[in-house]
Amino acid sequence: MDPAAVSPPAASISLRQLLMALGDSLVEVQAAPAGLDVEIRDVALLDPEDPPTAQPGELVLAIGARGRAASPALRAAGRDGAAAVVVKLDGPGQAAALSETAAEAGIALLSLRSDARWEQVNALARAALDDARPGESGQGAEEGDLFSLAQTTAILTSGIVSIEDAANRVLAYSRTTDSDEADDLRRRSILGWQGPEGYLAKLREWGVFQHLHSSDEVIAIDSHPELGIRRRLAVAIRSGDRQLGTIWVQEGSTPLSDRAPQALLGAARVAALHLVRRRRELSEDVTLTRTLLAGLLEGSTGPQPLATHLGFDARRPAAVLGFSYRTTEAQETAEVVAAPELTHTEVTNLVSVHIAARHRSALVTQVDPRIYVLLPQLPRGIDTDTLRGWAQEITDAVRRHLGLPLRGSVGCLVPGLGDVPESRREADRILDAMVSAGVPTAVAALVDIQAEVLVSEMVTLLAAHREIRDPRLTALVAHDSRHQGRLAETLLTYLNCLGDIRAAATRLHVHPNTLRYRLRRAEELTGLDLGRPDQRLLAMLQLRLPPDD
Description:
This protein is 48% helix and 15% strand. By secondary structure, it is an alpha+beta fold.
């Protein structure tokens, strides 16, 4: 150990706080057998020439020991009571092997990005220790989070929404286009940022606050024209037995939607995430959650860090839902830039509210251009049909409220969080096939479109490997490109119609004799023999490639 690298004693921080300070641009959690609340008191550099030793509470930077060569440092750090070891990896296989060693040694393992400099992580870790102070911890949620949630809830309920804290102070509210829709209670609450005492007294008299204090259920309050109060719904925002606030939905010029109570329940659960973390460095905590979730979905981070961070049972069933609101494969890339950021936020918020109403532990994240929902801790009896129904509700709501043609996919149910990457891969396979094959349904599981998925993946294989293509078909497509012809399109349509000349001609809007001529011309130009099944099969696959591929 390099004595010059050891800093003077500093205030300790947890591994969780260190990860917030470093960010996922530098390190990823590979293993955390003791959780993310282990205490880090110092930073030390381990030179490859030094014997592998450590001090209790140290963050050990294993410089020069790449991959499996870091195993002795992990074992020694675990033996000596260090908090965590940072290494560089040469490949994913090494991550799995070292994670197992770290778990056996009982020490956290972090991997440093291959292009990152040790000096950078050393400086940032020391700065985090130097900046650590007891006491206040963050300023809470950004107002925009709650205002955005209020607006999403208003869309889903067809009402006018306000979010209040436990002292009936207004924290956020939805926009209204018609000031006449808001009743007197709504206007006075917003203008004063607190419910007027006279109205609050009436709500106490009617037992509304008592209900909200003791129940998670949505309560309905009838209209009282004599008091200037329109019909409204309310639900408590809760964390365990503690009430953090209330969401109110007032009926405007149109009736509240039939699904308003369900949407309100989901909104309350999402709001609780904002309010409960107001004194727990919300933005950093949310960033860490998203980082751990992204790592789990990608398979670069194991399940234990996220399970420990959020208190999940990693051994219970889980699944991933995938969503994409692009209309074509090309737009999946182009519209990421063109679509306004508000659209991304609105869709993600709507997905979050809907799924929270169905499953309390659901996590939502966006990896452009797709949105993923992780469903951890699912009941053991749940089935794909139920998850398909949840996804269908979400796509219907996005189309109805935002006018976007959202696609949804249901990844396979897996036995635990460790298998989540498999469910995410299946969700992606389904979405890819829905785009490339033009599947008309809005939501699908693998069992629904397995043939389309497999054909899509075969075409992708052909696109990636020119050596397994038939050069005669390549020449046919090139001929069409030079002469603005339609021979390849005609051949594929004919094959898709199982050799039915009249059906293919109708689909192409040409005379059957014209279609026969084109088929003969295609055979003459290329030497293809359409009487041979293997050539027909290959043509059906290869001609599905984009013309310019």
